[in-house]
């Protein structure tokens, strides 16, 4: 996700592992951090639904696609911060169930 509000909403919805980019791009240090988790295989990318967020999602997929299984989520609103807990769960649960 992109911002702190998105991380907070995910936490409220019961998802306790999230990386907030704090912007619209994945930094090299964030990439290196992700690669240190030995049991991390799947990453759900849920950037904002605006143009910058979709560009960030494509960039993340190109940077991480060789290391992880990337699952991109198209959000029905701008971001998780604009969604309720119920809406957040309705977007993520079908993806998580398949993993």
Q: Can you give the mean pLDDT?
A: 93
Provide the spatial order of strands within the biggest beta sheet: 1-2
Distance between the termini: 19 Å
Mind telling me the C-alpha Rg? 13 Å
**Strand-residue fraction?**
5-15%
The H-and-E topology, N to C, reads as: HHEHEH
How many DSSP helices? 4
Q: What can be said about the biggest beta sheet?
A: 2 strands, parallel
User: So what's the overall shape?
Assistant: globular
Structural class: mainly alpha
Question: Helical proportion?
Answer: 40-55%
Could you list the spans in which at least 5 consecutive residues all have pLDDT below 50? none
Number of strands: 2
What report would you give on this structure?
This protein has four helices and two strands, in the order ααβαβα. The protein has 99 residues and is mostly helical. The chain has a two-stranded parallel ribbon. It is globular and about 30 Å long. The mean pLDDT is 93.
């Amino acid at each position: 996700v992109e911002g702190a509000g998105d991380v907070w909403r995910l936490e409220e919805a019961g998802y306790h592992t999230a990386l907030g980019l704090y912007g619209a791009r994945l930094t090299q240090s964030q990439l290196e951090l992700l690669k240190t988790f030995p049991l991390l295989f799947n990453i759900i990318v849920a950037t904002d639904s605006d143009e910058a967020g979709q560009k960030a999602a494509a960039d993340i997929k190109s940077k991480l696609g060789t290391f992880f299984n990337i699952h991109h989520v198209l959000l029905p609103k701008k971001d998780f911060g604009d969604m309720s807990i119920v809406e957040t769960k309705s977007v993520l649960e079908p993806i998580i169930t398949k993993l």
